[in-house]
Amino acid sequence: MAKQEDSQFQSFVKDLHSKYQSLRDGTVANYIPELAKVNPDLFSICIATVNGDVYEVGDYNQLFTIQSISKVFVYGLALEDHGRDYLLTRVGVEPTGDAFNAIVLDEKSKRPYNPMVNAGAIATTSLIKGSDVTERLNRMLDMFQRYTGHNVFVDISVFTSERLTGHRNRAMAHLMLNFGMIDQNIDEALDLYFQQCSVMVNCHDLAVMAATLANKGINPITGKQAVDSRYVKDILSVMYTCGMYNFAGEWAYNVGIPAKSGISGGIIAVIPDKMGIGVFSPLLDSRGNSVRGVKVCEELSQQFGLHLFECASNRLNFGS
Description:
The structure is a single chain. This protein has helices at 3-21, 70-82, 84-90, 118-126, 133-148, 156-165, 167-178, 186-197, 203-214, 232-242, 248-254, 291-304; strands spanning 44-49, 54-58, 64-65, 200-201, 259-261, 266-271, 275-280. It is built from twelve helices and seven strands. Helix content is 44%, strand content 9%. The strands form two sheets. A five-stranded antiparallel sheet has the order 2-1-7-6-5. It is globular. Helix 6 crosses helix 8.
């Protein structure tokens, strides 16, 4: 991007942050006790292009747990471990109008509906390869490192909190065990799932991770391949149709960008071949999506014609 455009876009991001800083709608997630302690005023926006340019404003270095955004990347790892045909025998790709933590499976196939809801994510996580729990955890952390470009760690207090209060997730796991969608090692699968949700990231990390998917699986900062490029279309497809839970249809209609939210307040959005967007604000709406995050993505999409089906050319020529 030219210097003048670069400066203009940074100013736009800064103005966007100022516009929604005063928005106080929503509540902080409280069903996981550790998440209820977060400062509701935290707010950051970060955008990373496939060329490695980064635009960021607000609390973009503030660490938080990745939560359900992790589902996107663990799904990619499971695809690499088993391939799409096998994975489809365990986890579907259909959107659902139910809440993300609904205890429900597809009536006909008995699979979880998709890998972006809790049941599907637990099934996906249970498929990560490794000789023991330590190897599986290390492989998962190594995968996140490829996306972020640096070492990541699990917040033990959040992991413990999730483990102690995750009764609905245990119920889902037992239901899937009953239908043969996961194996007998329920506790190991659930612990790894709770650990993946408790990985610490910041808004800058989210943008780089999203930009990596936009860049065919290659981290635009480090140049390293984070995920096999042939699976990026699978990841983005389920993000587009299922990533925003029971808001996915409205999101696809109004914003039109593959995205994933998490109850800690993060949202990632991917514009293929262009850029990745990360937003963090812990105030959530009734569906578990960041209120400020949704507003920011809506405005970015509308202002720059980022909707996948937008006819007009993008106003800013990212990544070229």
